[in-house]
Amino acid sequence: MSKEIEKVSSPKQVFEHVKLDYTNISVGAHDNINFGFKFQVMPFDYLSYAQKDMSEISPKGLINALSNAKRSIDCLIEVVLRSLSIDPNNIEKSALDFCAHVLSEKEQDIKPMSLRLFCALGFAPSFMISEVRNLRNKVEHEFHIPEELEVVRALEVSELLINNVKAKEIFSSTIDISDVKRHEKAGEGYITGVYFEQDYKTGGFKLSGTGKCGLEVEYEFNANETEYFYLLRAMFVADHDREKLVTTIYKLLDVLDIATPSEFRKVRSVHR
Question: What is the pTM of this model?
C-alpha cells in the first residue's frame, strides 16, 4: 500500500506542515544528483577540439583554440542550468533577485545573466569568473591574434571549470532541513525534516516533509521560485563550504518569512 502524499501549493506550506524548531536547526546532506541534460557536442568535446587546435601553432590554430575554449564554457553553463530545469536564455526575475542577495557587489554586473546565475549557484569561484569574462571579451570584442600564453590560460580555465563542476555534481547533496531533536531521535541516515531532492522520474525537483500526524506533504518546483535557487545553492555548497551552506539556509528562511525572528534562528548541526 503506497503512502498517502498531499500536494501543496507553495514551499512555505511544507515548512509550516513540518513545524521545525528554528532555534536548533539541523542540516543534513545526503545523496548526490546527476546532470542529465546532453548536447550532441559536450563541454569536454569542445575542450578536446581546443587542445587539438593548439597543436597547430599558427594564427588560425590560436584563434580556433580560443574560440573552442569559450564554447566549452558556454556549453558547460547551458548543460548545468538545463539539467536544473532552468532556461539559460530566459533567466527569470526571481533568479536575478537571488543573485543580488548572494553575490558580492563586484559580481552583480556579471554578464550574460546565465553566467551570473551559474556563479550564484556556487559552481564557480569568483577568481575563475573574472577569467571567464576576460576570455569572452577576447573572443567577442578584440579582433587580434591571441598570444600563445593567453590561449594556454584559456584552456586551463576551461578545464578547471569542467573539473570543478564535475566535483560539484559528484559531491552534490540532497538537503534535509530539520532540527536537532528530530535528528537525534531518528539517528544518522534518516530524513527527519523538510527534504529537497530531485525526482528521478521527471528530472524536476521537489520539497517534502512529514508532520506529527504522519501525513507527508510535497511541493514540486517549477524552477522559477526564489526558494528553489537557494535550495540548489545549498545542494552544491553543502559538501564544500559549511559557512556558505549555513548562510544560504538563513537567507532561505528569510525568504520563507519564517515566524521565528531571525535573531533567534540558529543552525546547531551540519551532518551527512
Answer: 0.92
